[in-house]
Specification:
Chain A: This is AP complex subunit sigma. The complex is a heterodimer. Helix content of chain A is 46%, strand content 26%. Chain A is an alpha+beta fold. In chain A, helix 4 crosses helix 5. The longest helix of chain A has 19 residues. Chain A is globular. Chain B is an all-alpha fold. The termini of chain B are far apart. The chains are: A alpha+beta, B mainly alpha. Chains A and B meet through strand 2, helix 1, strand 3, helix 2 and helix 3 of A and helix 1, helix 2, helix 4, helix 6 and helix 8 of B.
């Protein structure tokens, strides 16, 4: 399993989206998020976009006020994950049009649906934006 | 400005409201978004929980409202509060007809529940129904849920339908069905073992999305069992080729790269398939070369693919051309300003040095920059690299650095890891016992509680056994220095328990051995330790046993024992201790002190902790006792495995016998089983007080030192011995001076001196080169400290190293013309050397001008390694083809690989002419050095002909 969790956290450290691909209890999640966010927020722009934490490797990327954090295990290609984050953002951008933190907050389920299309069992399964978005668009039309 | 934008967006949102979102929901989100503190956020969420509880319990909530409540529940959980009161509503919503509600329900359920939750059972039915739906979006939603919620027990309930869906007409469904099957495989491989072939089938799916998804399960399968999938290597290569040729739909492109994520997955699979498999690897060379050439090195994603290519190239059967471009890419990464690329570069370097260790040297300064970078991630990665390239010549620098770093960080997880790495490296490569002990002291001092206790026992054993040779003075010096260092450290506060145990044991065994310290001094220190760590029973036990030893040695030596008042009070305190172990030790101590010298000597022989103890497994010395008991009517002993049968068959008259249960009876015979060695009984009888204390507890216990010290049951020490044998062997590497070199190598030492002298002369010349190179890199000046570090990390002969790295880079940058030029300078300098070395037999011109290349790669190799290298070389001379380059400069460890590469080169891949040229051009640039002469010497001696492999043309002439 490559990807263990995906988090979106804002500058203040508030969670905006959390998706775990392995089961953690509420307390474990809260502790993990706190530790990771503290670690990542403390880093400068020039430093690596990768941080080791416990047995995870965190790949993170910042877009305006929002941090995207992906926890992976050791055998993952960090730079590819970094670009995967960007692909996710581009996909959301295409759907919402110039996506921002509030879009994700108001349409949390949509953001989750996109992730459901892109990542299954901790693996990247779909990288074509058209394929990712078409079920969501169909659903919008139907309702 | 940003504020304005946000406000505008909010307005747009609230006016939109058309997504079915109520004002209430928008307000909630807004208030959450506006919070400035965690406390404020918690307040909002708690209020929200109350609201939701009330709303959800009211019977007439409209459905569209329910969806919104569910999203609010998701928020509650996401922000760290328990929302279990609403789980059931999420489950209910999965039953809904509307797709959007259903999918939201499934989403909530997958976020809330783990696969073993009680509510899952309520969903399985719904999932089954939805898997049969006509609407493929419903099927997809259900398959998503299958991936998250189905556990081992429920797999059979959905498995047939999932398998059926593998052939669904919609590619999205097929893709998700593949992933569902993948999930089942992850959860319970046995449940789908008969369906594995489906993955192979889906690999050929018409839809690239399904094919890409299938790579995930195949990757897992191949990781576990490579051999069953070797046949797929061709298919994967073909797929990769098609992707590289942009045959996939445009929508898979990412930043002008064709389907990079699929490429990466394929490369991962290929590196598994090609690992150690020449035949499969050969199928991959072309496509790997193509991809590496085509990759856009300016984009992140291009570099990600390049990095994956390097990983693949360094995993599969080596191909010189690919290795070369991998090395080029690595140097690009390392020279980049981006920390991310540097990070990848360091990681890739760590992979590649396993195959071609010599490339590390040209990057030494970059590596050291990364090591000293304030960025922790980069630093750690660099430590990983150093760990991989540690050898006996640089272990001291590397381990010292690691320890310094370990002290500087707080991260418990990483401290543990780095501590165990330090220990591992120290045990493997330690140049001297002295150093080993000092290093271990440092590790123990700062991370003693994080390392395995075995490490402590290794250390004790090492101090006890010393070199394992006859060199007694060295051993006792070692011990004295250990004692001294421990006496220095012992007063420090907060020493880890494990370390204190080691200290106590060493002080007990050797504290008074060299006569430098008096018994009262040592015992005083030991009492201090016991007092300062009054809560740690293990440390106290070690301290008491150490006291016992010191006193015994005193008594044996015929000196009068004066128990210090604090010792006396310590013993008295322990006599009444709650711990039976401590009590026992205290009583033993008391008893031993009162005995006469002869008895004590038998109980506690001086420096006997390493002696083997013969164990009489048959307990023959108890034969008479058993016989006597039997005659008195005792039950005969029945072995443990025979007992159950007996009691099963008949109701074995156990009632009247005290050993009615297995456990009790077992114990009755266990006591004498404590393997008292034959020679001891006499002692025991002479010191009757000792006998009543049963030994078995020791045998089972962890306190090894006590065991070995008491000399009564030897199991402990024999256990220790087993553990350490490997270490001892590695340690056995003879020191340079202490061995007697063979005649031929002593010869070489002579010439060795000559060349080193020469090298130091020529090094002044080289400095100039260095500077010019550095200035070209726009790095004002590399501090001498850094250079020193580089030299110590990358090999002893630093000067020639740097020369290589310099000229190596130059060649790779400029064309062969420049190489020629450097060749000339080299040639002159090497002819100098030839002059110096004129004593040796072969004609100098043949030796040096022809091929000043050879093994400059591992300048730090010790003479014995060189000799080994010679052996290899002679064996391989026949293999060396005319284009052979890599073999001679493959250093020690890699000789196996080198063999393989040489044969591959000669038999299979004939590199295009220009490649050979660059190789050759590179060759001369490498400086001559000691090893080269050594090898030639030996060659001349053993082959009888003047050099072969290194001088292709000559070789041809001679044989051709």
């Amino acid at each position: 399993m490559g990807i263990r969790f995906i988090l979106m956290v804002n500058k203040q450290g508030q969670t905006r989206l959390a998706q775990y691909y392995e089961y953690l209890t509420l307390e474990e999640r809260r502790a993990l998020e706190g530790e990771i966010v503290r670690k990542c927020l403390a880093r400068t722009e020039q430093q690596c976009s990768f941080v080791e934490h416990r047995n995870y490797k965190i790949v993170y990327r910042r877009y305006a006020s929002l941090f995207f954090l992906v926890g992976v295990d050791n055998e993952e290609n960090e730079l590819a994950i970094l670009e995967f984050i960007h692909l996710l953002v581009e996909t959301m951008d295409r759907h919402f049009g110039n996506v921002c933190e509030l879009d994700i907050m108001f349409h949390l389920e949509k953001a989750h649906f996109m992730l459901e299309e892109m990542v299954m069992n901790g693996c990247i399964v779909e990288t074509s934006k058209a394929n990712i978005l078409s079920p969501i668009q169909l659903m919008d039309k139907a309702s | 400005m940003e504020q304005l934008k946000t406000i505008g967006r909010e307005l747009a949102m609230s006016s939109q409201g058309g997504f079915g979102q109520s004002k209430e929901f928008l307000d909630l989100i807004k208030s959450i978004g506006e919070t400035r503190s965690k406390a404020e956020e918690d307040r909002i969420v708690l209020r929200e929980i109350d609201t939701l509880k009330a709303r959800l319990s009211s019977p007439n909530t409209p459905k569209f409202k329910l969806k919104e409540y569910l999203m609010r529940l998701i928020y509650v959980e996401m922000l760290g509060h328990d929302a279990s009161f609403g789980y059931i509503h999420a489950v209910k919503m999965t039953h809904d007809e509307s797709l959007s509600l259903k999918r939201t329900g499934y989403l909530a359920v997958t976020l809330f529940l783990n696969e073993d939750h009680d509510l899952i059972i309520l969903i399985v039915n719904t999932i089954q129904k939805d898997l049969r739906s006509d609407n493929y979006l419903v099927v997809c939603a259900a398959l998503n849920a299958v991936c998250r919620l189905i556990n081992e027990e429920t797999i059979p309930a959905v498995l047939p339908q999932v398998v059926e869906l593998l052939g669904h007409q919609k590619e999205a469904v097929r893709k998700k069905a593949v992933m569902a099957l993948h999930r089942f495989y992850q959860r319970a491989p046995g449940s789908v073992s008969h369906l594995i072939s489906n993955f192979r089938k889906r690999l050929c799916d018409n839809d690239p999305g399904v094919m890409a998804a299938t790579l995930c399960p195949l990757f897992d399968l191949i990781t576990i069992d490579v051999n069953s999938y070797k046949d797929l290597a061709v298919s994967f290569v073909n797929i990769l080729k098609q992707i590289a040729e942009r045959r996939l739909p445009k929508s898979y492109d990412y930043h002008q790269m064709p389907a990079p994520f699929i490429q990466i997955k394929l490369l991962k699979i290929l590196s598994l398939l090609g690992n150690g498999d020449k035949k499969s690897s050969e199928q991959m060379y072309t496509i790997l070369g193509d991809i590496m050439r085509k990759c856009d090195a300016d984009s992140n994603i291009g570099n990600a693919v390049l990095y994956e290519c390097i990983c693949c190239v360094s995993s599969i059967h080596p191909n010189p051309k690919l290795l070369e471009s991998a090395a080029d890419t690595i140097s690009k990464f390392l020279k980049s300003d981006s920390h991310n690329l540097k990070y990848l570069g360091i990681d890739a370097l760590g992979r590649l040095i396993r195959i071609s260790p010599e490339i590390a040297e040209q990057h030494q300064l970059a590596v050291i920059d990364c090591l000293e970078d304030p960025d922790d991630t980069l630093k750690r990665k660099t430590f990983d690299l150093l760990y991989k390239m540690t050898k006996s010549s640089n272990v001291e620098v590397i381990v010292d650095r690691m320890i310094d770093y370990m002290i500087s960080i707080n991260d418990h997880h990483y401290r543990t890891e780095i501590a165990s790495r330090c220990v591992e490296l120290a045990e493997q490569f330690a140049p001297s016992n002295q150093w080993f002990i000092q290093t271990m002291n440092k590790v123990f001092e700062h991370a003693g509680d994080l390392v395995n206790t075995k490490v402590a026992h290794n250390l004790m054993r090492l101090i006890a056994e010393g070199f394992g040779e006859d060199d007694d003075t060295a051993d006792s010096q070692l011990r004295s220095s250990a004692v001294e260092s421990y006496l220095r450290i012992i007063g420090e506060p907060k020493l880890p328990s494990t370390f204190l145990q080691v200290i106590c044991w060493v002080l007990g065994e050797y504290g008074t051995a060299d006569g430098k310290y008096s018994a009262s001094y040592i015992t005083g220190k030991l009492c201090d330790v016991a007092e300062a760590h009054s809560t740690d029973d293990t440390v106290k036990a070690y301290a008491v046993t150490a006291l016992l030893k010191i006193y015994s040695f005193e008594i044996t030596a015929g000196r009068k024992v004066d128990t210090l008042p604090e010792c006396q009070s310590l013993i008295e305190e322990l006599l009444a201790s709650n711990s039976t172990d401590l009590q026992q030790r205290a009583y033993e101590l008391q008893a031993v002190i009162c005995l006469d010298a002869h008895a004590v000597e038998n109980i506690m022989p001086m420096d006997a902790n390493c002696e083997d103890i013969e164990i009489d497994n048959n307990l023959s010395f108890l034969g008479a006792y058993v016989q006597e008991s039997l005659e008195k009517g005792a039950q005969p002993y029945i072995p443990e495995d025979g007992r159950s049968e007996l009691s099963n068959i008949s109701n074995f008259r156990s009632q009247d016998h005290e050993s009615s249960t297995h456990a009790l009876r077992f114990e009755a015979y266990e006591l004498p089983k404590s393997s008292v060695p034959p020679k001891v009984p006499s002692v025991l009888s002479s010191s009757a007080e000792l006998v009543p204390i049963p030994q078995p507890s020791y045998v089972a216990e962890v306190h090894q030192p006590a065991t070995s010290a008491l000399k009564v049951s030897g199991s402990g020490s024999s256990e220790l011995k087993l553990r350490l044998d490997g270490v001892q062997k590695k340690w056995g590497r003879p020191a340079f001076s202490s061995t007697t070199p063979s005649p031929s190598s002593s010869d070489n030492f002579g010439s060795n001196n000559g060349t080193t002298q020469h090298e130091s002369i020529s090094s002044t010349k080289l400095k100039v080169h260095d500077v010019s190179y550095d200035s070209r890199k726009q790095q004002p000046e590399v501090s001498s400290e850094k250079k020193k570090l580089a030299a110590s990390l990358f090999g002893g002969a630093s000067k020639s190293d740097r020369k290589q790295s310099y000229s190596g880079q130059k060649v790779s940058k400029t064309n062969s013309h420049a190489a020629d030029k450097s060749n000339i300078t080299e040639a002159t300098s090497s002819s100098d050397i030839a002059a110096v070395k004129a004593t040796s037999q072969p004609p100098p011109d043949l030796l040096d001008l022809g091929e000043p290349t050879v093994t400059s790669s591992a300048p730090s190799v010790d003479p014995f390694k060189q000799l080994e290298g010679l052996l290899d070389l002679t064996q391989d001379t026949t293999n060396l083809s005319s284009s052979e380059v890599s073999m001679p400069n493959a250093p020690d460890l890699m000789s196996i690989y080198a063999d393989m590469s040489s044969s591959s080169q000669s038999t299979t891949v004939a590199p295009p002419p220009n490649v050979t040229k660059t190789h050759l051009a590179k060759q001369p640039s490498k400086g001559p050095n000691v090893q080269e002469f050594l090898e030639k010497d030996a060659l001349v001696r053993q082959v009888g002909v003047t050099p072969s492999g290194q001088n292709p043309n000559l070789f041809k002439d001679l044989l051709g």
